[in-house]
Structures are given as C-alpha cells and as structure tokens.
C-alpha cells in the first residue's frame, strides 16, 4: 500500500463486546472526498486526535496514545472510544504500510455531522518529515504567554485544557509568532510565569542534575514521548521529577529539550535570544533509544 493511507472508521461504543472490528474499517483513496460539509471537526474543530510514530514497522506507544484519546474524549464529552477498536485500526494500518523508515499516523475522533447521531473517525498515515538535522542541531525557542494563570483547567474545565482537541489554530499561530521573532519554536508560559509545554511538544529541563517536566495537570498534555524519555533516563540511573517549573528555572537550566512523538527529542539551543547549554551526546542517545523502541 502506498502513502498516504487513509482508513475511515465507524466508532463502536466503549462497552461493545465485539472482538472483530473488520467491518467498521474502510480503506479509502486519500485524495477522494470523504467528509461531509456539516462535519463538526471542520466546522468547529470539535474533535480530538492523536499522532503516533511508526518506526520500521513498529507503532510507538500505542497504549499511552489510546489512553490519552480516551482522556480527551472524557474532557470533551465525546463518546468514549473503544480501545480494542483503535488498537485494531492501528494494527490494520501498520500491516498495510511500508515497513521501513518513519511514518506519522494520525487518528481523529470528531463529534460528527451536525444533527447526526454518531461520531466520525478516521486514521491517516503519511511519511514523517526528515527531522535528522533538527534532532542534531536543536531549536531556538522563545517563550510566549498562553494567556491563562496556573490552575485554570480546574477552575474553567470548559476551556478543554489538557484535551488534545483539533483546535490547533492557536498552537500554529504561536509557532508563526516564534518565527516572526527569529526562533524555531516556542514554550508557553502561564500568566503567572510557569512553564507549560510547546504547541506540539512537552518540555523537559535538567536542573541540578535532575530531569524535570511540568506536572501534567489539567492544563497540559501528558506527553507520551516525555514518559518514554523519563523511562530511558531512569534506566540509566538518572533522577526524574514532575513539578512546577518557573521561567527563572528554565532560564538557568543545565539543558532543555522539546520532545514529541514524531520529531522526538530536540535540544533547546537558545531561549529568548540567550544561548543555553546543550547536551548533544545525551540528545543523540535519547533519540537512538526512542527510535529503537519496538512498541
Ligand atoms: N503537548 C502538545 C500541546 C502536543 O500537541 C504534543 C504532541 O503533539 C505534546 C505535548 C507531546 O505529546 P507526545 O509526546 O505524546 O507526542
């Protein structure tokens, strides 16, 4: 099967006792029209998604991605996905895809068609961009105000912070703003000066020899890559910690990374115009370990 590859999915309820989902999957021509105009995913960005990486035929971190999809569905009051159906959809896609190189596999659950009874869902696989240079050389980062104080997710759950919704227009606008400021990427801050995450990545810093990431409260995503990186570091005997990170601490970090499923770990080389220390050797080791995962 050639790329891109697209599979339409008829979502089944989470409590379905089915074990075979073959008749709920329909492979389609990726260039063919597939969504109706009244789709709420396109009309309102009202849906959720995940993007996982497939490396040399191995889908990465399937269970954490499915768990996060389920968590996003709960936050958004969407019908809870059936984990077995999504596992089967990913397995079917992977069985049809080229078994070499790095692929990005995006799966989407939308509220469906306006006035329609059912959610819509699909999976779309493409070859990943070539991130070798950025993994080797890192990114310049500016910090940007996310516009909310710490604790907002608990006070205002309707903001859907902590859900991976399709409404990424703000995230993309922040990346454009970073580029306007001469940087490659950005780290969001709360209005009271705490580190959150990047628009498409989690933040890890090394501070006093400990690897720290902001606690995945309701306001940021719990990154699947960040969890893999922590597992790798712990296996090397390193200390890891989830806690609040202030902007001052980020500025003084021994090293900092942005980590995400497809780009993997990239060093932050500059923060708001000031160079910060880079651990190129560790970054290479982390990426080698991430690329060697078979699950
Ligand atoms: N935070 C945000 C807002 C993201 O969009 C992403 C990934 O796209 C991440 C964090 C990193 O998550 P993961 O490592 O699971 O890709």
UniProtKB/TrEMBL annotation:
The alphabetized UniProt keywords are: Lyase
For the keyword DNA-binding, the answer is no
| InterPro entries (UniProt xref) | Aminotrans_IV, Aminotransferase-like, BCAT-like_C, BCAT-like_N, Class-IV_PLP-Dep_Aminotrnsfr
Protein biosynthesis: present as a keyword of the record? Answer: no
The organism's superkingdom is given as Bacteria
Molecular functions per Gene Ontology: lyase activity
Q: Which family does it belong to?
A: Belongs to the class-IV pyridoxal-phosphate-dependent aminotransferase family.
Q: What is this protein called?
A: Aminodeoxychorismate lyase
Origin species, per record, is Leifsonia kafniensis
Instruction: Please spell out the taxonomic lineage of the organism that makes this protein.
Output: Bacteria, Bacillati, Actinomycetota, Actinomycetes, Micrococcales
